Amino acid sequence: MLKLAVIGAGTIGRTHIERALSDSAIHLVGVCDPDPSARAWLQERQVEWFEDHMAMLRRTQAQAVVVATPNDAHAEVVLDMLAQGAAVLVEKPIADTVDNARRIHRAATDSGLPVLVGHQRRYNPIMRQARDIVTSGLLGRPVCVTALSTWYKDDDYFKAEWRTRPGGGPVLINLIHDLDLLRFLYGDIESLHALSSSAVRGHPVEDTA
Predict the structure, then answer these.
(1) Which helix (H) or strand (E) is 91 found in, with range?
(2) N or C: which end of the chain has fewer CB within 10 A?
(3) What are the residues whose beta carbons fall under 8 Å from the beta carbon of 175, sequence distance 6 or more?
(4) What percentage of residues in the chain have a pLDDT greater than 70?
(5) Rounded Cα–Cα distance for residues 87 and 4 (Å)
(6) Could you tell me the pTM of the whole model?
(7) Can you tell me whether residue 208 is helix, strand or coil?
(8) C-alpha distances in angstroms, 35 versus 73, 80, 129, 161?
(9) CB–CB of 34/41 below 8 Å?
(10) Dist. CA 77–CA 79, nearest whole Å
């Protein structure tokens, strides 16, 4: 049975926790989240709560960890877990900056431990069939892709302060899925030109790109 811990008990973290609790192959040994509401939610489910992720890992000896923290905390937490010998599933995006993503890649390579990124949409049967169609040549040779994505975010969405800061905007929270699927369907991106703006809401993070 896999000894699993989770760091972050927000919306996505709770999805991982619920799935872990329902899987007989997983022993959920602890969850770290300093939010008092998270502690109460975990106590209702009889899950051991921790305020500090390092203390949790030392106490539980987890073999694997799901990291579902705000984006700007991914790198440091993942590096801590790898240094302690735990495999990691980190929610997308892998990190908030390219430099932090490279730090994780180097640490994973050096440790020999897996670091998986939560791009679960690749496993959707519809997307797998779409990829089969593209790779079969049925559509000919794709030479260009044009896509448009729009999300509505009400004011309550930005009550989580980290979503107003660079690294927490719709590009890395939402568009990252679509970019990953484009790569899944058509291969790696060869060139990129990007523009962004924060003129609509006025937060430091982009709201349009």
Answers:
(1) none
(2) N
(3) 149, 209
(4) 100
(5) 10
(6) 0.88
(7) strand
(8) 15, 20, 41, 14
(9) no
(10) 5
Q: What single letter denotes the amino acid at residue 174?
A: N
**Backbone torsion region of residue 50, taken as left when φ is above 0, otherwise alpha when ψ lies between -120 and 50, otherwise beta:** beta
pLDDT, residue 102, reads: 98
**CA nearest neighbour of 74 among 52, 96, 47:** 96
The beta strands (E) that lie in 35-132 are given as: 49-50, 64-67, 87-90, 115-117
- Phi, psi torsion values for 124, nearest 5 degrees: -65, 130
pLDDT digits (tens, 9 = 90+) for 137-150: 999 998 888 888 88
Give Cα separations from 118 to 18, 36, 74, 145, 206 (angstroms): 16, 26, 12, 24, 22
Tokens standing for residue 50? 């921790």
User: Token pair of 136, please?
Assistant: 């079969």
- pLDDT at residue 192 is higher than 90: no
CA distance 154 to 157: 6
Q: Is 117 helix (H, G, I), strand (E, B) or coil?
A: strand
Write down the number of H helices and E strands in the chain: 8, 6
Q: How confident is the model at residue 153 (pLDDT cuts 50, 70, 90)?
A: confident
Contact 68, 13 (CB under 8 A): yes
